[in-house]
Amino acid sequence: MGNLVEIARFYDPEEAYCARSFLLSNGIDSFVQNDHYLTAAPWMRIALQGYGLQVMASAENDARMLLDTIGAAELETAEDSPSDATPLIRKPNWLWLPVAFSTSIPFLPKPKPGWFGLLQSTILLTLYIAVLYLAYSWLAWISFWL
Q1: pTM of the predicted model over 0.70
Q2: Residue 109 clears pLDDT 70, i.e. is over it
Q3: DSSP H helix total and E strand total for the chain
């Protein structure tokens, strides 16, 4: 049994599953990485860099050759579309990982009885909202200057 190697990465699940099905129809076993997690939390696609398509190391060259035969789908552009449009650059962006995790996993303490528990929960929830506000403000400020 060999190791798994990643041969492609997709941001759309449909594209990843079509590529996997194409490889399976040609006799190459493949695996879509992050599919269960990103199905449950689709807002994490950018943070986790999408869906990775993996095959056995022994079938890597054949799988790459098969995927290269398909090629990328060409979009037909209208004559009146702007020609100076910039293409989408897909690169790892580690800034989104803490942002995505901070919004999807809130911290709330174990409830305590009485007024102390209500006070503690209110303070911690206010602190959580303030940190999120400051983080998003900082991100907006950074993206403005980039």
Answers
A1: no
A2: no
A3: 5, 3
